[in-house]
Structures are given as structure tokens and as C-alpha cells.
Amino acid sequence: MTTIIVGGGASGLACAVRLKQNIPNEKVIILERLERTAKKILATGNGRCNLSNINAPHCREVINFFRSLGLITRTDEEGRIYPYSNQAQTVADILNESCLRLGVEIITDCTVKEIDKNLCVNTEKGIFMADNVVIAAGGKAQKALGSDGSGYVLLKNLGHTVTPLSPALVQLTSSSRYPRALKGCRIKCNMKILVDDEMIGGEFGEVLFTDYGLSGIVTMNLSEKVSTSFLSDKFVKCHAVLDLIPDMTDSELAEYVHKFKSLKGILGEKISSVIDKQAQGNIIKAAQFAKNWKFIITGTKGFDFAQVTNGGACLDEFEGFASKKIRGLYACGEILDRQFKCGGYNLNFAWYSGIKTADKIAGVQNDTN
Predict the structure, then answer these.
(1) What's the CA angle centered on 175, arms 172 and 178, to 5 degrees?
(2) Which of 53, 81, 296, 347 is deepest in the core (most CB within 10 A)?
(3) Per residue in 147-177, pLDDT tens?
């Protein structure tokens, strides 16, 4: 039996390794478009590879998989799980070495042009016949790291539905001048997103001011709602509203500024001076801005800067990552319409879906033998 995996990223590598663990005699081939596998893995977690999170579904199964390969992990105070070395390269090396040891064939610089319903895979390096095909080609986020959206075309041509795509876990752009004035400043605050004056999401977390707008974990988590709102051709009015001092009520803050005539003791010199300038020296208005500071949002930084893709292959058309339309066809990882917040959750899903796809293939083969 031969299984071809399209894509040598997180889900594809996990699927290949697990499948060879399950069925050592299975012929497993990874077709990778780039010059090497695991390129996107190296960029995750700021080069540390946030593998998973203790609060993520199926986290234990993912960690046990990596332990079976000899990878030891550590967990930080926020539940994020990293390789013990704190190096993404370690994760990439372990996966690639496991593929080599188990006999997975990896073909790089290989673009898949078409897959037909008989699972004949047409590539720039020839035609491959398979009993099973796993599409693990990623989404559209960060094309330079391998995800160019081509996997969606392959699935569409095989009769699968792809939901509307937009950047997720991405920075927000703003036409307001104040983020630029505060470039590099970070603050933990409440952020809510208003679209046409209606709140569509809110969260507490760190916001980073930049020369283009807003970044930081809370911004990234809410960006999916912004990018979805901008999908239609209709003009939308979008604002990010920050409560910089969520620990104080409006009346408590009013009492504070009445007494101290400044916000410096709470927000520090730089942020308080920018707010004071916007309020034209009126400390009461400055306090109001601090609790309800509006920024015009013009969109996101786009797919090239996004960590993941919002939307994807419709989950209703898969069962256990197996296609309901074509026997022997599977999909796993970011190409599916399944997204999570920052903190290791998306990478956890990539590993898990790859692992379970391999288990599903092994189960189907075992049933038919």
C-alpha cells in the first residue's frame, strides 16, 4: 500500500511518522513544494516552537507522540508547551530524522499540479499512484514558508467545498496617528472590536503599538473577526476600542485624576503624554480616552503576516479527517476550516490531525486485511 502526503509541514510530517509507526511496511511519500520540509515549523513561537498548550484538546496525545520520538518538552506559566531545548530546530530535526529512520521518502521542490479521483498524483517530478492521499498543504498564511493556498485548489477540483478565506492571528492596520507615536509600547488592557458601531468581539491581553497600527496577543486573537468583516465588498466602519485601565471604574479614575492631575502614575510618561495631547490638556477628557480609546481599523497586514488562515475545507465533508466524497482521500492541518487562538492551539491541531489521519488510514487497512 502507498500513501502520498502533499505537504511537509507540521501535520504532514506528523502523519508520515505516525503512519510508519502504525504500519512499518507502508510506503509513505511526502511531496514538498519547497526546498526542504518543516520550514514553517522553524518560524513558530519566535523560533522556539510553541508545540501545544496544556489547555488544548488532545494535548496529552500530541505530547506522547513527541515523547515516542525522544522529544522532551517544558511548560511555561501560561500553559504553553515548548521543546526542552527551546529551539524550533530541535522539533524539525526530530521529525525529519524520524522520517529518515522509519523509511519515509521525502521529495522536495515538488509541486503537485493535479490529483484525480483515482488518486493519481500529477507533479512537476512525474506521476505517482497511491492507495491513499493526504492533503496537508497548509493554508494561505506566509507563502514564503510553504502555504500558498494551492491545496485548496486540489480539494476543490476533487469536489470539496472551501469556505471563504481570510488572514487570522494577524496584526491590524490603523489610519489613526497615535499608534505610530507609541511605536514599541506594550500595555495589558481590554480591547473590543466594533464594526458599524456594533461590538463583535472583545478580550483582555497585551497590545503592542506599531507604526502601522496594533499588534500583540489580544490583537492577533481578535483579528479573525476583523478580517472576516472586511471580506465583503460593502464598506464597513471598524474600530478597536481600548480600555487601558480596566482595573479602575470610571468614577475611581475620575477621582484619581482630580487628585493627581495626571495619568503618569498609572500609564507612565509616554502613553499618558500622548493621551494628554489628544485631549488637548484636559485631564478629564484624558481619563475618558484612557477608558475608551478608539482607533480606526483599516484592515489587517494580510496573509503574508498571518500565522494561520481563517476558513478552509469544509469539515462537514470529512469524517475523522477522511473525505466523505472520495475513498482514500484525507486532509489535515491548516487546510481545514478549523482555527484557534494564540498559544500553541493551532500547532497542536496540526499535529493531532496528522496523527489521527494516520490512525484512520491504519484502521481502514487493518479492517480490509
Answers:
(1) 90
(2) 347
(3) 899 999 999 999 999 999 999 999 999 999 9
pLDDT for 299 beyond 80? yes
C-alpha cell at 203: 478580550
In DSSP notation, 20-32 reads HHH-TTSEEEEE-
Listing DSSP states for 317-358 in one string gives: GEETTEESSSTTEEE-GGGBS----TTTHHHHHHHHHHHHHH
**Is residue 80 helix, strand or coil?**
strand
Cell numbers standing for residue 76: 511555561
Of 118, 114, 128, 210, which Cα lies nearest the Cα of 170?
210
Cα–Cα distance between 322 and 319 in angstroms, integer?
Answer: 5
How would you label 323-341 residue by residue, b for 16+ Cβ within 10 Å and e otherwise? beebebbbbbbbbbbbbbb
Q: How far apart are CA 309 and CA 337, in angstroms?
A: 8
Reported confidence tier of residue 366, pLDDT bands at 50, 70, 90: very low
* Eight-class DSSP state of 313: B
pLDDT tens readout for residues 100-127:
999 999 999 999 999 999 999 999 999 9
CB 175 within 8 A of CB 295: no
* One-character DSSP codes across 244-289: S-TTS-HHHHHHHHHHHS-SHHHH-HHHHHHHHHHTTT-HHHHHHH
- For the chain, how big is the Rg over CA atoms in Å? 24
Q: What phi and psi, each to the nearest 5 degrees, are found at residue 19?
A: -65, -40
Banded model confidence at residue 235, pLDDT cuts 50, 70, 90: confident
Q: Which amino acid is at 251?
A: S
